[in-house]
Specification:
The structure holds two protein chains of two kinds. By secondary structure, chain A is an alpha/beta fold. Chain A is built from ten helices and ten strands. Chain A has two domains: 1-77 and 152-241, P-loop containing nucleotide triphosphate hydrolases (Rossmann fold), CATH 3.40.50.300; 87-151, no CATH class. In chain A, strand 4 and strand 5 form a beta hairpin. Chain A is globular, with a radius of gyration of 17 Å. Chain B has helices at residues 2-32, 39-59, 65-92, 101-122, 151-173, 175-185, 187-192, 197-223, 230-245, 250-270, 276-290, and strands at residues 127-128, 136-142, 145-150, 225-226. Classes of the chains: A alpha/beta, B mainly alpha. Chains A and B meet through helix 2 and helix 3 of A and helix 6 and helix 7 of B.
């Protein structure tokens, strides 16, 4: 479904991604873990041409999207829930959701709104509230719901658990699993919270200094001594799901 | 008493016009964070379209004021929207992503270009048109002075109120308005949701220009004389209005416009007509010094 081959990204003199090969198949949950500054967010944003890749190819659904304008990439069946949520703070929850399906027709919008209310009942209670006044966990749910409004086949998430209370983290990973298993959404998940991410993922990649240094099934990576040392025991520890 | 009432009426009329122009400044600032100094000249271009339009219609024997006004408004809105679009496309879009000062300088260049273009093609002399709407209502007479509300003033205020209502509806209630506000808050995120940000910015410029066009037609009709330089002064005053109201805020732009209009009217009458511009620009300096976010604006730094 998504295939990156030899992707390099430069930020001025900084060589942020150094030859990334990565693929996501239909129906999978794939996670990308790595420390701060490894290039995880850069990788997700570069899928949308922000920044443009300097070499390599990004193929989504059989089409090379690496040269398309950002908004046209977003009109393919691919949605990004970016780092820091980036909900529109001075718009209401409902308006934020509608923005997620801004290019769709009215039927589509109504269907998806109903589905989002079922997935995230808390949003329905806050429809007319400004998004900036929601709690972090609620904002994250809104960001995910906004991403889903376009009815994507592939959902990209950048650190959805960052800064959230354990209860919300649990809820969000539960929702991701539900989306994958019951709604058939393919997921690429970037996380520092390696423990949760690897448990929910079928496969994982480990990114270090702009290179993929390890890949394998979620279970294998979870058991790997190197991953444990670098991202689990030494890193954040959190309660199991 | 009657004199004060008269100044109140004059001030509100003038303020409505400033407010219409100020909305263009404030919207453009909201969406791309730049002051479009060529905006006042768009208003001036519209005034010239109005003079040409009214003169031509009169030559063709159109004597219905309502019809002439409608046709000229439509023409002015159409042409200046294209101007607004072209200015953005030529002078600002290629500079997107450069330092903040660069498009600002470009807009000053655009302003000078438009002034000279009109001066060259239309001549430097003042252009008059005969008064179109005469008459009015006498409100109050005290000590031989009669406060009078003219029909053209009523028209200006009515048109402004109607436009403001339509505009608020457009921004608050429609899908275009949502996109526009989304671009204001986070342009990258808006693009990530599949929205063509460049197109939204172009439309914003066109809308701002359309409002300035209406102001240009109304002023031509009201004062009856224009020249190629009116855009500069009106532009700076409308800019002051936008800053006073809080740049980025639509109601703020209108409120700022009304306040500036009233101050000018009262200042000219009770203090000195020659120094009325001093009053306006002193306000600009005071606001920038003591309350840079304006009356209804929000502070620049915002925790998100």
């Amino acid at each position: 479904m998504l295939r990156l081959a030899g992707v390099h990204v430069h930020y001025g003199p900084i060589h942020a991604l150094r030859g990334i090969d990565l693929s996501v198949r239909v129906g999978e949950v794939v996670t990308l873990i790595g420390a701060n500054g490894a290039g995880k967010s850069t990788l997700l944003m570069s899928l949308f041409g922000q920044p443009r890749i300097s070499s390599g190819s990004i193929v989504f659904d059989g089409e090379d999207i690496s040269r398309l304008p950002t908004h046209l990439i977003a009109r393919r069946d691919i949605s990004l829930v970016p780092e820091g949520r980036r909900v529109f703070p001075r718009m209401t929850v409902l308006e934020n959701l509608l923005m997620g399906a801004a290019t769709a027709d009215a039927d589509h919008r109504e269907t998806e709104l109903a589905r989002m209310y079922a997935l995230f009942p808390v949003l329905r209670e806050r429809l007319q509230q400004r998004a900036g006044t929601l709690s972090g966990g609620e904002q994250q749910m809104l960001a995910i719901a906004r991403g889903l409004m376009a009815r994507p086949k592939l959902l990209l998430l950048d650190e959805p658990s960052l800064g959230l209370a354990p209860l919300y983290i649990k809820k969000i990973f539960h929702t991701l699993r539900e989306l994958n298993e019951e709604h058939g959404v393919t997921i690429l998940l970037v996380e520092q919270n390696a423990h949760h991410a690897l448990r929910v993922a079928h496969r994982g990649y480990v990114l270090q200094h702009g290179r993929i240094v390890m890949s394998g099934s979620g279970r294998d990576l979870l058991a790997s001594a190197e991953v444990r040392a670098a991202y689990l025991e030494g890193g954040q520890r959190s309660a199991p799901c | 008493m009657a004199l004060a009432l008269q100044q109140l009426i004059n001030g509100l009329t003038l303020g409505a016009v400033y407010g219409l122009i100020a909305i263009g400044y404030t919207m453009v600032y909201g969406i791309i964070g730049m002051i479009n100094f060529a905006h006042g000249d768009i208003y001036m271009v519209s005034a010239f379209i109005a003079v040409t339009g009214f003169t031509l219609l009169a030559a063709f024997g159109v004597h219905s004021v309502a019809l002439a006004l409608f046709v000229v408004l439509a023409l002015a809105v159409l042409f200046t929207s294209v101007y607004g679009w072209a200015v953005e496309r030529v002078a600002y879009r290629p500079l997107r992503g450069s330092a903040r000062l660069v498009p600002l300088i470009s807009s000053i260049g655009m302003s000078i270009f438009l002034q000279n273009l009109v001066q060259l093609t239309q001549g430097a002399r003042v252009k008059p048109i005969p008064p179109m709407i005469t008459g009015g209502v006498d409100l109050l007479t005290v000590d031989g002075f009669t406060a009078r509300l003219s029909y053209s003033q009523i028209l200006i205020v009515l048109v402004t109120v109607a436009l403001l209502a339509a505009f608020t509806w457009l921004i608050q209630r429609t899908s275009f308005g949502r996109r526009q506000r989304a671009c204001e808050q986070d342009r990258t995120m808006t693009a990530l949701l599949g929205i063509d940000v460049d197109r939204t910015i172009s439309l914003t410029f066109m809308l701002g220009a359309a409002l300035a066009a209406v102001a240009g037609v109304l002023v031509t009709m009201y004062y009856g004389v224009i020249d190629f330089y009116i855009g500069f002064v009106a532009g700076i005053k409308a800019f002051t209005a936008a800053v006073l109201g809080g740049i980025g805020s639509l109601p703020g732009a209108m409120l700022g416009g009304l306040i500036i209009g009233l101050i000018e009217a009262f200042w000219s009458n009770y203090l000195s007509a020659e120094y009325k511009d001093v009053a306006t620009f002193s306000i600009l300096i005071l606001v920038l010094l003591f309350r840079p976010s304006g009356l209804l604006g929000r502070p620049e730094v915002e925790k998100v």
